[in-house]
Amino acid sequence: MNLKQLSALLDLSQTTVSRALNGYPEVSEATRRRVLEAAHRHGYKPNSNARKLATGRAGSIGYVLPVGRNIDLDPHFVEFLSGLGEHALSREIDLSLTPAPYERESEAYHRIAASRSVDGVYLSSMRNDEQRIALVRELGIPFLAHGRALKPENGYAFVDIDNEGAFHDATRLLLQLGHQRLAFINGDTDFSFAVHRLDGVRRAMADRGLPVAKLQHHSAAMNEENGYRIANMLFRDADPAMRPTAVLSASMFTTLGIVRALNQLGLKMPDDVSVITHDDVFPFLKPESFSVPLSTTRSSIRAAGARICERLVDIISGAEREPVQEIWPVELIVRASTGPAPAEHRMVRRRPAEAAAAE
Amino acid sequence: MNLKQLSALLDLSQTTVSRALNGYPEVSEATRRRVLEAAHRHGYKPNSNARKLATGRAGSIGYVLPVGRNIDLDPHFVEFLSGLGEHALSREIDLSLTPAPYERESEAYHRIAASRSVDGVYLSSMRNDEQRIALVRELGIPFLAHGRALKPENGYAFVDIDNEGAFHDATRLLLQLGHQRLAFINGDTDFSFAVHRLDGVRRAMADRGLPVAKLQHHSAAMNEENGYRIANMLFRDADPAMRPTAVLSASMFTTLGIVRALNQLGLKMPDDVSVITHDDVFPFLKPESFSVPLSTTRSSIRAAGARICERLVDIISGAEREPVQEIWPVELIVRASTGPAPAEHRMVRRRPAEAAAAE
DNA sequence: AAGACAAGCCAAAGCGCTTTGAAGATCACA
DNA sequence: TGTGATCTTCAAAGCGCTTTGGCTTGTCTT
Questions:
Q1: What is the mean pLDDT of residues A85-103?
Q2: What are chain A's domains?
Q3: If we measure between CA atoms, which residue out of B257, B311, B287, B299 comes closest to residue B79?
Q4: How far is the CA of A247 from the C1' of D23 (A)?
Q5: Which residue of A has its CA nearest to B43?
Q6: Confidence band (pLDDT; 50, 70, 90) for A359?
Q7: Nearest protein residue to D10's C1' (by CA)?
Q8: Distance from first CA to last CA of chain B, Å, rounded?
């Protein structure tokens, strides 16, 4: 059943039927009802390709999916997607994934632009030296970034979380609890979120008058294996005098490995080691259900997905005129994995005046 | 730049240019080269919507993405997607996701069918009472299933792994090692893979002459939390005489929780408890890097993704005429988490004749 | 009563591509 | 030189929808 047949059936022109269906005002209510009823009864659905061609709109948003042997689409993506999907649904929007290996990313964007198969794209996993912003801008593809490069040139639109603030606050808490030897098992610092987090940790240390060099910082892909490996380096292999009393972790996966190493070494949270981890809110891996519930900086990546879809639609339709740079605050949730530094390590209490100045 | 402009530029008809670009034989080699060169130089890419409309082909495969507050898109999906993407890439095929809540799934398929936005769909997470097969067949959408319903009616095409065989073999090994009290922490038995696995476990027990009722079977969503909860039920809360000496686990996530519970209860693998888990091969969570490396039944879900894309393309093009039902064998990989049953529980050795008959 | 205006409808022109059916060029062969 | 066969190329007709620019009506002014 196509428009032509439907309109013949109703003895109306294609124009009228089309307008009735799309809610234009030039159709009488009576006709509109008649058309809608007939369309529904015969199961008429406009051919999406014809509509796309005629309107120039694709009705879908795109994402260039990084693939390749060594690129692991991480679980964050699914969670994000899930949020995006929830919103997309309400707008009858599809999501189109264009797979591309990292080295051929730019080609993929060119293809998207030239073939007009999507109305806009979102970018994620922003790197420090982000190339894609300039590219999609030049190609004229409406876009919205999830995260931001180090220097968001020319004010492009993004949704990001306050990674700097989150890790600043987490670090400040640890310092307030008397910890002095801190370790930070960070994500890959090629990505800007990891740099922001590091900045936050350092700022908190500096605020407290602690030499930034004392931070034991490790950067690696966020997974169980690396968490385990690095925790062992810190707690098993290193000079005992250097052992951190608190660890900041960039993801729940990393933390899985850290907790495994600590268990194995017989170290207890929070008496021996305090841990604060970032939690992207995975439904299948909850910090509160660990043996020792974990303190976290929490921000739902799923909510970000929904929001990004919402804004991208606005950007495409032109409703969002000036690029908005949205930075979400992050909650610091204290559970059982954080506590005062072990006595032998406890920091000498500072004089009241000094403490006040630091606030 | 569109076809019209390009052909004007070359002083050729649109027909000829289109044919040259699409590799039809009616074009002289000289013209073809000239056309290709010009197209490349001016960055001409055919408008995908126009092409789709003209050919009726969409150049993309679809998936109805389950969304909704209580549906958790699990990490298996990403891994699968990643494999699919790898293959799709080589064929310049996009993947189109249509988000839909479970109750409105059928509507989504209707929309896909009527709007002709994809050439075919793949179905996954097959349930026992699978409705979708009949639906997509009726709608005339080419499809390929990942997994199979309990009774694959009318021989539809699928790719599945031998879940029954995998869990049979794993169970047989445990029985050979003398275990008699087995627990199986299964996935949700609404899904057919979980039923197949249970069948496998039961068959191995029956083969060995063990009453099937002795199996402690638990079915729940595969995540850390449930693994932990159920392991505690089995090892902490239950009558000590009932404690299993071996546990089969349906996923690495479940196993994370099991291992956590065992650690907490001071139970060691494999001396106190043997564990075998199914491993879908997540790059971020490897059974071999656990403190006690885990024995697994292994099948790469990513490889399945790639294969499904490959076959779906064949199905769409008509290259696969008869529906092929492909079942992949699953490897049983023994690592350190499995060992002989603890002495006090060890099974009485059967008489040689009986043992031979069981083979 | 005539003009102005709005409401409701329609024919036809795209959107940019593929594909059909036909025609012009070229060639082999008698 | 004529004739059919074989290459090349082309004009035009779709694909199914949206949208422009009228054309009729009927209603409201004055």
A1: 83
A2: 3-46 (1.10.260.40), 60-161 (3.40.50.2300), 163-299+331-358 (3.40.50.2300)
A3: B299
A4: 78
A5: A114
A6: very low
A7: B13
A8: 70
Q: Is the pLDDT of residue A263 over 70?
A: yes
Closest by Cα among A313, A265, A262 to A291: A262
Q: Which of A61-75, A119-133, B85-99 has the lowest mean pLDDT?
A: A61-75
Which member of B60, B99, B116 has the closest CB to residue A89?
B99
Given an 8 Å threshold on Cβ–Cβ distance, is A95 in contact with B65?
yes
Across B264-268, average pLDDT = 92
Q: Which of residues 6-45 of A touch strand D (CB under 7 A)?
A: 14-15, 18-19, 21-22, 44
Strand D within 7 A of B239 CB: no
How many whole angstroms separate alpha carbon A238 and alpha carbon A215?
A: 14
Tell me which chain A residue has its CA closest to the CA of residue B56. A49
Distance CA B255, CA B247 (A): 10
Q: Residue A93 pLDDT more than 90?
A: no
Helix axes B192-207, B163-176, angle to 10 degrees: 30
List pLDDT tens digits, range B121-147: 999 989 998 889 999 999 999 999 999
pLDDT of residue A351 exceeding 80, the answer is no
- Where do runs of H (alpha helix) occur along chain A? 3-10, 14-22, 29-41, 48-55, 75-90, 105-115, 132-139, 163-176, 192-207, 224-232, 252-265, 301-317, 352-358
Three-state DSSP at A246 gives strand
Average pLDDT over residues B79-108: 84
